[in-house]
Amino acid sequence: MKFHVETDRLILREWREEDAPGLLKLNSNPEVIKYLHMEPMKNMEEALKDVKWVTDQYPKNKIGRWIMLEKSTGEFVGWTGLKLEDMEMNGQQNFYDVGYRMLPEFWGKGYATESAIASVKYGFEEMKLAKINAAAHCENLASRRVLQKAGFKELNTFPIFDFQAYWFEITKEEYFSK
Ligand SMILES: CC(C)(COP(=O)(O)OP(=O)(O)OC[C@H]1O[C@@H](n2cnc3c(N)ncnc32)[C@H](O)[C@@H]1OP(=O)(O)O)[C@@H](O)C(=O)NCCC(=O)NCCS
User: Over pLDDT 70: what percentage of the chain?
Assistant: First the structure.
């Protein structure tokens, strides 16, 4: 399944095997995974396994995360987009989650916000979803700010793994009334 979404500065498309080196660079960087409950990625085999995991979700769920490329250079920035989340979080399961993860050299340019806004638009306008959620480690202030700028409201905090996270939501009524 293919996706192609463009924002002012980004191209968002389906994951491909050719993205494995970028994904390895991303997921092996301790700064990137600081607020994520994961071990650093070790090799290309793990990156390719991730590509398969994500691309398997596309036909099943009609959605999955997208690769983020910089439009002006074609460079791999990271990933973004919607996922049908089957892990229970904040007492909810099978909700549509917005997420993003970028290489540090692309931080601070507004790309995460631009991609989150495009993901929310796709969820409500193309997929006709009723609501979209997101979660972020309470100390991940950049992610919290991205979600606020993308129109999410912060509902509560909840325990997950060994930390507290913020729980975010935006409904279709809120989106279309903006
Ligand atoms: C989270 C992440 C995507 C944000 O990327 P980014 O390039 O900084 O995002 P943006 O530029 O779109 O917006 C960041 C906003 O947070 C603000 N911000 C950044 N660091 C901050 C901090 N430490 N404290 C408070 N605000 C902060 C920025 O000022 C900006 O807000 P503004 O436009 O109002 O000034 C990036 O840091 C990342 O990839 N982190 C690793 C993966 C990750 O944590 N993903 C999210 C999991 S929930």
Answer: 100
Ligand 1 pocket residue status of 7, Cβ below 6 Å = no
Q: Could you give the 3-state DSSP secondary structure of residue 171?
A: strand
Q: Is the CB of 175 under 6 A from ligand 1?
A: no
CA distances from 39 to 35, 68, 134 (A): 11, 22, 21
CATH 3.40.630.30 assigned to domain 4-131? The reply is yes
User: Above 90 in pLDDT, residue 34?
Assistant: yes
Question: Confidence class of residue 178 from pLDDT cuts 50, 70 and 90?
Answer: confident
Structure tokens at 4: 């192609």
Q: Quick check: pTM over 0.90?
A: yes
Domain boundaries, the chain: 4-131
Residue with the smallest CA separation from ligand 1 atom 33 is 110
